[in-house]
Amino acid sequence: MIAILGLIVGVVLGLVLQPNVPLALVPYLPIAVVAALDAVFGGLRALLDGIFDDKVFVVSFFSNVVVAAAVVFLGDKLGVGGQLSTGVIVVLGIRIFSNVAAIRRHVFHA
Amino acid sequence: MSEPTTRARATGAPASYEQEYDTVDRVTMPLLQRITVQALDEDYAHAARRRQEQAGATGEVESPRSVSWWLWLGVTVVVGILLAVAGRQTSQAAVDNQSSRPALIARIDAERGALAETQERVGRFQAVINELQTESDRVAQDQVSTGEALRRLQARTGYVAVTGPGVRITVQDAQGVDPGDAIRDSDLALLVNGLWTAGAEAIAINNQRLTALTYIKNSSQAINVNSRPLVPPYVVEAIGDPRTLQARLLESPSGGRFEEFARALDWQVTRQNVDRLRLPQAPARMLRSAEKGLAGNEPRPDQEGGTT
Fold it and tell me: Region Disordered: which residues (chain B) (predicted)?
């Protein structure tokens, strides 16, 4: 409930406030979002595994976002930004999938 | 989704990735499998194991940390904001792309039309330039030929200085001659006529060039040419073929008569072939009554009709 509530509040805040993203950061925003989703699902799975730690979660959340954006930024500077962002998306996507699968096992016991 | 706080189960710390797999397994494990196995951050397992060890050391069983509502709310809000902003950016970029495409196409079309128009104008101007170039060439040619004609005419009529081979004839009265027997205008006119007849192309007397308007006339003692009084001796210079000029002069009637006078009145006449004579140009005279005629090659209606 709280999660859904927080998500809705966040979306509404984002749409209402329309924070101005610096133009230089715009290409890294989708990567940052995917990294944040990965951290969230990871945290959820840890919670269901019973090993959740709020400090670890917060640190992993922000470090994931920053590192993913930094890797893509570096790739842009090296001229392989597209390929590197694809790699990051693939890795994070697989992690999200397997975490979601673990969560599903916990919730549905299947 | 169930309440996070109630889901915290007191279980033993699960084995971490490092515990579960030895180094060889980790090195040889396929990349995709490794990603799947490592899907959960190992830090959770580390933290859980540390907590368990602490609990074991102190002997008290510490329940796993519960999740505070505020943390959960804050994180989900942040995720929501991120999602909203990213979505808005993407849709905006799509809108920008879509709206800019037709505008660009329209601009391309417009510029293409303008380019075609400009090229057409360039072509037209090119044609005009070619026409004008032809005209200019023709005018330049006309100018050249007219200039040549003018120079020929000036040389022939005496209004430009000329050089060439010819004859210099110096005529002088006999010593102590009676003024009545002195050389007169008609005598010089005879000589000049004879030279013209003999084929002279340009004549000057005492550096006075003879033109179509020149007269030779006595006023009291002096002979005037081009309204300038001449001082004896009279030097008549004629440009022409030096091989034939003198002989033909003698053969001509007026030249013959001049010779007779010269012999009879005992004038001192010296004839001299000169390789290179330089005759000055005559002073230009304004024409007041005579008007410019039609151009040389054009037919003259008045003459064509008048002469039979």
Answer: 287-308
